[in-house]
Design goal:
The protein is α+β, with helices and mostly antiparallel strands. It contains ten helices and seven strands. It is 51% helix and 14% strand. A seven-stranded mixed sheet has the order 2-4-3-1-5-6-7, sandwiched between helices.
Length: 272
Amino acid sequence: MEFLERVKQIFIAFDVVDALEILLFAMAFYYVFRIFKSNNIRSLIAVFTLLVIAAGAVFVFNEKLRTDLFIVMPLVFVGVVMVVFNVEVKRDILNMNTFNRPEKGGGQATVARDEVERYITEIIKALQNLSKDNIGSLIILANDNVPSQVLESGVLLDAKISSQLIEGIFFPKAPLHDGAMIINNYKIQAAGCFLPLTQNVNIPKELGTRHRAGIGITETADVIALIVSEETGIITVAQRGKISRYADYDLLRKTLNEYYWKDLAADGRKRV
């Protein structure tokens, strides 16, 4: 009976403000999970900002609610979710400040299919030659998605893609061989770039700094990393923080095909 009496008192004390608080919490819950389902962290940040503003207004104009947990819970919830998904948040924040250098004449649309096939062949050839000679290398494939601070840490080249140039840059004791090469669409955009290292403690211990850098940039930017081990010659493909080791010709071609052709129109028209 005492329990029922307490429940009764709760409903008696329940008012419109309490209903609005519960509604706010439910909406925050719903929209945050919708945002994560669509992988749109920018929208999450916008929702979080609006909640902060709304809560601040309530605290200022309604003294009764300044210590009310219901109005704080949505903010705490969103904050915790942002911490848990910190990799996705970092990636979208960094991608807000990218270094865009579009190709003259419309970028990809100006390059014929046979040219794209040549670029793919040249990159694979270079990787296989580097692998055969156990020459460490790190190539980043980016469609204008590399943060400006990464590009500025290296040397801008804006050079045509060729296996000879790629192999020459990574030749041991060459000035730029220790950094990462950035291939942006159809040009070698930069080389000798420094990348953020992954903080993932589950990365295999045998993977060194080059691999950690390649994985790290894929966690913070929408790019692909192609890594050749200096110790073993093993080629690794990294995307979104995940790695595929022992990459052979088929996997490399599949990865490069997806990189160069992923933006094809849905109606199947090829860019020419």
